[in-house]
């Protein structure tokens, strides 16, 4: 997965602003933020999308959510509210073929999202 931009960040071959990291997950600021807070939570192991992750190791999705909730609590977002988004596939809006969870916050979210 040498061409995957998230794998390159995880391997230290590309730069990103890392806001949280643990054994399984790295969290970075989104380079095209859609809210004042827009963090991507990325598993360190490459999974193309959420379907592949669930088929190979369903617990990775739980670890993404746990890391994102940890961040939301520590930053105060959990008091005001936030949104999670996981895009899957081209029609689902996934632009990087590596599973990632978006955490958006610090503004009023609208519906429908798009």
Overview of this structure, please?
This protein is of the alpha+beta class. It has helices at 5-10, 50-57, 59-75, 77-80, and strands at 18-21, 25-29, 37-43, 82-85, 101-105. The radius of gyration is 14 Å and the shape is globular. It has a five-stranded antiparallel β-sheet with strand order 1-2-3-5-4.
> Which range best describes the helical content: under 10%, 10-25%, 25-40%, 40-55%, 55-70% or over 70%?
25-40%
Give the strand tally. Answer: 5
Counting copies of identical and different chains, the oligomeric state is single chain
- Helix/strand/pairing category: alpha+beta
Strand content: 15-25%
Q: Supply Rg.
A: 14 Å
The overall pLDDT, averaged over residues, is 95
> What's the shape?
globular
Strand order of the largest sheet: 1-2-3-5-4
Structurally, the number of domains stands at 1
Q: Give the SSE string.
A: HEEEHHHEE
Examine the coordinates and then state which fold CATH places here, giving the name of the CATH topology.
HIT family, subunit A
CATH class value: Alpha Beta
């Amino acid at each position: 997965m040498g061409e995957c931009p998230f794998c390159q960040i995880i391997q230290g071959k590309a730069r990103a602003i890392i806001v949280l990291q643990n054994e399984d997950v790295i969290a970075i600021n989104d380079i095209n933020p859609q809210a004042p807070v827009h963090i991507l939570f990325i598993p360190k192991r490459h999974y193309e999308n959420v379907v592949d992750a669930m088929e190979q190791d369903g617990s990775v999705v739980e670890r993404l959510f746990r890391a994102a909730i940890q961040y939301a609590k520590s930053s105060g977002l959990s008091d005001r509210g936030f949104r999670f988004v996981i895009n899957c596939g081209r029609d689902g809006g996934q632009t990087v073929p590596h599973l990632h969870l978006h955490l958006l916050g610090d503004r009023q979210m609208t519906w429908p999202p798009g």
